[in-house]
Amino acid sequence: MTRALMFGTALMCSAFTQAGVVEVHVGSYYYEPQFASVQPGDTVLWIWDGPNGGNHDVTSGAGCSDESGLFYSPITEAVQTYEWTVPATEDGGVVPYYCSVGNHCVAGNQFGGLMVNVGAMHFVSTNGFAFEPAEITVQAGDVVVWIHGGGTHTVTSGTDCVSDGRFDSPLDNFNPMPFYVVPDDEPTGTIDYYCVPHCGMEMTGVINVTGSGTDCPEDVDGNGSIDVDDLLSLLSAYGQSCADCPQDVNGSGAVDVDDLLQLLGVYGTDC
Predict the structure, then answer these.
(1) What is the helix, strand, coil percentage profile of the chain, to 5?
(2) What is the mean pLDDT of residues 242-260?
(3) Class assignment of domain 214-265?
(4) Buried b / exposed e across 77-92, counting CB within 10 Å, b at 16+?
(5) Which terminus, N or C, of the chain has the lesser number of Cβ atoms within 10 Å?
(6) Residue 24: strand pairing partners
(7) CATH of the domain spanning 121-210
(8) Is residue 19 very low, low, confident or very high in pLDDT (cuts 50, 70, 90)?
(9) Confidence (pLDDT) at 169
(10) Is 257 helix (H, G, I), strand (E, B) or coil?
(11) Measured between alpha carbons, how far is 107 from 101 in angstroms, rounded to an integer?
(12) Residue range(s) occupied by CATH 2.60.40.420 in the chain
């Protein structure tokens, strides 16, 4: 296959897969799916599930009363759908949102998140004075989401009840889903965290990280496989100059056709 043909094939694949529509159904105290994987350029379509589901809205923000201003719309019989296109500025992050109607977020757990071109999702809940599971294993580029299961807690990185400043978020009724995206260049190791008010009761957790490393640079998202997500990530940065960005698989300082061909040469393999 010639270089031009391979490049054209990749661009056609991007055109068909990047600009997708992701549907989220809205009903009685729920968004379904609650957490959706999206790409920059995708359109998120929230759909009202009918009169039995009541009146709701979609409000961007990290807590039940924290409006980020990215989007807002009622989802009701009068306004049954709402569309929002994911901007490139949200690439590699999480866009949290919630229902601001009444106590739907605080008491009804009606909140959700858009996972924008991140790795795998990992969920940790609270059970009394414990994180469950207390220990997880992730890849560089993955996202960890803590789900409020009762009580007033925090997720604070550090050891021996001393913060190291990496992350520190409340985890309570008004802040039901703090999250942390593991950096793409995170080395292999552990990230310890704890609950500030209950650290003395051994409310602690561990995130074991398998770093991205350099043995398999074509695995852009570090999930162990060279697949369409790696291809789309590379294409999203195509033509850009960058220093140490994962899409620059050959380390030349620019994301160009040579990076694309190197990835395509091992496409579909594991590493």
Answers:
(1) 15, 40, 45
(2) 88
(3) mainly alpha
(4) eeeeebebebeeeebb
(5) N
(6) 46
(7) 2.60.40.420
(8) low
(9) 97
(10) helix
(11) 11
(12) 11-116, 121-210
Phi-psi label, residue 256: left if phi above 0, alpha if psi -120 to 50, beta otherwise: beta
Token pair in block for residue 174? 């008004």
Distance CA 156, CA 267 (A): 38
Q: Where in the chain is the domain with CATH 1.10.1330.10?
A: 214-265
Question: Taking all residues of the chain, what is their mean pLDDT, rounded to a whole number?
Answer: 90
Task: Check pLDDT > 90 for residue 269.
Answer: no
Q: What is the mean pLDDT of residues 146-159?
A: 97
Residue written as token pair 């106590």: 103
State the pTM of this model: 0.74
User: Residue 35 carries which side chain, given as an amino acid letter?
Assistant: F
Distance of CA 27 to the CA centre of its chain: 23
- 257-265 and 3-17 helices cross at what angle (nearest 10)? 90
DSSP string, 7-35: HHHHHHHHHHHSS-EEEEEEETTEEESSE
Determine if the peptide bond prior to 33 is cis (ω within 30°): yes
The two structure tokens encoding residue 43: 């359109």
Task: Specify whether domain 11-116 bears CATH 3.40.630.30.
Answer: no
Residues 6+ apart with CB under 8 A from 2: none
Q: Which two tokens stand for residue 115?
A: 């996972």
β-strand pairing of 131-132 with 30-32: unpaired
Please report, as a single letter, which amino acid is at residue 100: S
The CA distance from 209 to 200, in Å, is 25
Tokens representing 147 are 């789900």
Convert the pLDDT of each residue in 56-99 to its tens digit.
Answer: 999 999 999 888 999 999 999 999 999 999 999 999 999 999 99
